[in-house]
TrEMBL record:
It is found in: Cell inner membrane. One of its GO terms (cellular component) is plasma membrane. It comes from the Bacteria. The keyword Cell inner membrane applies. This is Type II secretion system protein H. Pfam families: GspH (PF12019), N_methyl (PF07963). InterPro entries: N_methyl_site (IPR012902), Pilin-like (IPR045584), T2SS_GspH (IPR022346), Tfp-pilus_assembly_FimT (IPR016824). The chain crosses the membrane at residues 12-34. It is a single-pass membrane protein. Keywords: Cell inner membrane, Cell membrane, Membrane, Methylation, Transmembrane, Transmembrane helix. Residues 45-153 form the General secretion pathway GspH domain. Belongs to the GSP H family.
Length: 172
């Protein structure tokens, strides 16, 4: 006669212990998730601003007209709008090119603040080569101090960098 097989599976006590250990480990990992999402928000904002500036440069060349990217606001309430004039307050419909609203609003990037260049700063893209006057920087920062810069060089080169390097970007 064959002996009866022993019990298989987990007991309720073993399952409760495993769930308790997992809960403790996840609680310890939560702050690192916050840091990850914080870096992601700033990185996404910088990439969006960079793409917007590249678009403004391309549109200036395509239309053979000077186009401006105007920075309005600072802190947590900011926007960057595209216009043919040098003013654009980013209210709905104020930043238009060919009757199309063209702006990046801070509401899409909760927790990301604009440090520089500040209200009323204008990136004027020349239609011949997409150049700008002077070297310009848009500084984006999270509430936890994660900084990412979008730099526009005199020759119109737009790049993203991080002070000290990191996050997949070169050092500024």
């Amino acid at each position: 006669m064959r002996p009866l097989p022993g019990p298989k599976g987990f007991t309720l006590v073993e399952m409760v212990i495993v769930v308790a250990i997992l809960a403790i480990l996840l609680t310890m990992a939560a702050p690192s998730f916050n840091s990850f999402f914080d870096k992601y928000r700033v990185k996404r904002a910088a990439e969006t601003v960079s793409a917007f500036l590249v678009n403004a440069k391309s549109e200036a060349i395509k239309r053979n007209k000077k186009l401006n990217a105007v920075v309005t606001g600072s802190g947590s309430t900011w926007c960057i709008g595209m216009t043919e004039s040098s003013t654009c307050d980013c209210s709905t419909g104020a930043c238009k090119v060919d009757d199309v609203d063209r702006a990046v609003y801070s509401t899409a990037f909760k927790g990301v603040e604009l440090d520089e260049p500040g209200t009323g700063h204008v990136f004027g893209f020349n239609p011949q080569r997409g150049t700008v006057v002077g070297n310009e920087t848009v500084e984006l920062e999270s509430a936890n101090g994660v900084e990412v810069y979008v730099k526009v060089g005199t020759v119109g080169r737009i790049r993203i960098c991080v002070p000290g390097g990191g996050q997949g970007y070169p050092s500024c």
